[in-house]
Amino acid sequence: MSDHHPAPPFPPQQQAMPGTTAAMQPRPDHGETSYRGSGRLAGKKAVITGGDSGIGRAVAIAYAREGADVLIAYLAEHEDAREVQQLIEKEGRKAVLMPGDIQDASHCKAIIQRAVDELGGIDILVNNAAHQATFSDIGDISDDEWETTFRTNIHAMFYLTKAAVPHMKPGSAIVNTASVNSDMPNPSLLAYATTKGAIQNFTGGLAQMLAEKGIRANAVAPGPIWTPLIPSTMPEEKVTSFGQQVPMKRAGQPAELATAYVMLADPLSSYTSGTTVAVTGGKPFI
Predict the structure, then answer these.
(1) Is 192 an active-site residue?
(2) Digit-coded pLDDT (tens) for 4-23
(3) Four-way CATH pick for 45-278: 3.40.50.720, 3.30.70.3550, 3.40.50.1000, 3.40.50.300
(4) Which of 82, 123, 207, 215 fits 274 for a cystine, CB–CB 3.0-4.6 Å?
(5) Which of 74, 192, 261, 271 is catalytic?
(6) CA angle 89, 43, 88 (to 5 degrees)
(7) Is the pTM of the predicted complex or chain greater than 0.85?
């Protein structure tokens, strides 16, 4: 193939959850050297959960280069978060780091309050952070694992959105990370896929609920994307072949999703709400 992006087989690798960018082979491309902004989000103030690595990191870089100040909420990956902070500040934009566990409703409220206090408001909320684990049998999924997945992936999205909406003006945007698993659930990702289906329904209902306030809500449904979540949550043999099942025969890089998140946050997309943009490497998303 003439495609310059890395394709499987990838080197065998495993990490402890939630994984780090530096340990990945090859290192993911978040647009550090390739993304060029054009002022589409000039003066906007954004909150991105899971903004330290993977898709969230690529979105943070893109938003900063489009002119936005950014608060990055993340669990505990301080080194990854500081790298993103430096990239944002290099663009002359403000970067606020907010570590902590979004399973906690009070922490979600604190994230939004800090954005209001330190950025001066909130125009864009990107609900991106997620928990995922692989199981071959339902009996292997503990009650705590099931609850952790729901608290992280969907409950936190509700807490954050509920806290943010009172501070959002007409023209603001909410972008939620769903998945191809929303409509095509992978049985080995039963808990994760179930939450992603919930996220898609949450987004569709939210768009209708917030339309009168002039706030848009949309989702992005990624296919296989090369992020720390992969070597830290999947068996080594699946990591090695990750992405080869789609027509492009490779995993997507986080940078390749950034434009979808920019488009959905762009005020010029003012009639786009209640939709899901699929970024799948050629696999139809019905």
Answers:
(1) yes
(2) 888 888 988 888 877 778 78
(3) 3.40.50.720
(4) 207
(5) 192
(6) 15
(7) yes
